[in-house]
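Hi there, hope your week has been kind to you so far. Thanks so much in advance, here it is:
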Amino acid sequence: MEGIQKKHSWSYYVKSLIGILIMILFPLIPAPAPITSAGMMVIGQLLGLIFLWSFVDMMWPTFLAIILFGLRAKEIYPNSWQINGIYEAGAQSFGNWIVVFALGCLILCVALEESGIIKRIVMKFITSKSARTNAWMFSFMILAATMVISLFMDCVAAEFFMLGIVHEIFDMLGFKKGDKWPKYMVIAITFTVILAFAMTPICHTSSILFMGVYSGITGQPANILGYMLIGIPIGLIIWIGMLLWFRFVVKPDISHFDTVDFSLLESKCPGKMEKKEKIVAVVSLIVLVFWLVPGFLSFLAPESAAFLLLDRLTATTPLFFAIVFLAIFRIDGEPILDLKSAFKKVDWLSIVFLAGILMIAGAMGEETTGIGAFIASVIVPLTAGKSAFILVGLIAVLSCIITNIANNIPVGIILVSVTVPIALDAGINPFLFVVAICIGANLAYTIPPAFVPIGIAYSDEWCEGKKVFLNGLVMTVISCVVLALLMYPLGNLVLGV
C-alpha cells in the first residue's frame, strides 16, 4: 500500500478534489435497476476510495468514507439499531473481528522479526550445501527461503526483507544495474512473495478479508486448514512453472556465481538460538497448531468435544493469548514482546484500509443496495448450466484475470459477495468458491495498482517495470491454466462439493 503520491503539489489537491467529488456526486446519478440510491452511494464510496487510494493517499480517504457512510447508513440498514450514524459506522468497521485478527497477526509478525528467527531461516537456506552446488541452486535456495517466510508473514515485509539481502549479494558479486540476473531475481522474488501470499491466509490481510465476507454472508467460520490444503499445492505448482520459465526460457547470466563469498554470507548468520528466539518460535508454532487442528478434527471427529471447544475459540483467541504471554514473559527484566514498541511498528495503514473496505463490503452484500442482484444478473448467465468443474475453474480464472487490471481487494470482495449465493443455489460448497477467489484474486503480477509488491518491484533500482509486466503476463497465463485444471479436483478432494 506504499507507492502512493507523497508530494503535495497542485496535482495532489486536484486529484483529492476529484476523488471527493466522486464520493459525493456519484449517488446523484440515476440508479439502474435493481441498484437502489443507497447502492449508488456505496458504489460511489468504493470508486472514490479506489481513485484516492491509487493516486493520493490511503489514510484520510478511508476516514472520510466512514463519515459519509455513517451519514447515510440508515438507508442501507433501515431496521438495524447497530448502525445509525458516524459513530456506529466507525465501530462497525474498526470493531470487525477481521480487523482485530489482522492487528494481532501484525503484532506477532513483529515478535518473529525482532527475535531473529526470520533471518535465521533465510540464511540457513542461502548458505546451505545445496546453495553452494551451482548458480541455479543458489538462485533456487534464495527463492525457496522467500517462499517459506512469505507463507506466514506480511508480503510487503517479506519482499523488503529479501530484497535487502539480495541487493547485498548483487553488490558482492559485482553486478551492475541492468544486468540480467539481478533484474530477474527481483522479479522472481516478487512473484514468489505474491504466490505465497495466495497460498495461506495467515497474516495475509486480503484473504482474511475475503473469508470475513464469506462468514458474514453464510454465518459459517472459515476453514483455514482446508484453504491451505488447496492453496499450497496449487501455489507450488505455479511456482514450479515460474522456475522452469526463468531457467529454460529467460536464462539470465549467472557467470558471476563463481565469486560468491560464502564466508561473508555465513558471517551474517545469527549465532546460537537464544532463549527469546526459542520462546517466540514455540509460541508461534502453538498458535499455528490451534489454527490448524480444528480443520483436522472437522474431518476426523466433527462431533468430538475437542472440536466443538476449539471451534468456539475462533482464530483470534490463541493469537491474543500468545501476544499477552509474550508481553508478560520477561528475559533479563525485559519483555519478550514490547507492546509499546510493537504498536509503533504495526502497519496501521493496512488496519485502517481493512476497516474501511470491510464497511463497504458489508454494505455491498445488503439487499437494500441492489448491488449483489445487479452483479448476479451479469454473472449468472455466464455460469448457468455449467458443471461444477467449469464453474469453479471459471471463477478462479476470472478472479486472476480481473485482479491483474484492478486492485485485488475490491475484486475479491465483489466476487465473493456475488458467487457465494450462486454456489449455494447450485448446491456447491460455497467455501470452495471463496478459496478459488482468495487464490485467484491475489495472483496480481502485472501493474502496481493491482498489488503493492508489484509496485515495489517497479521502483526497485535493479529492476525494470517493463520486464515485470511482460513476465507478469506469462505468470498470469501459467496461473490461469493451473487454476482452471486443478482448482475443482483438489477443492472437491479437500472440501467436498
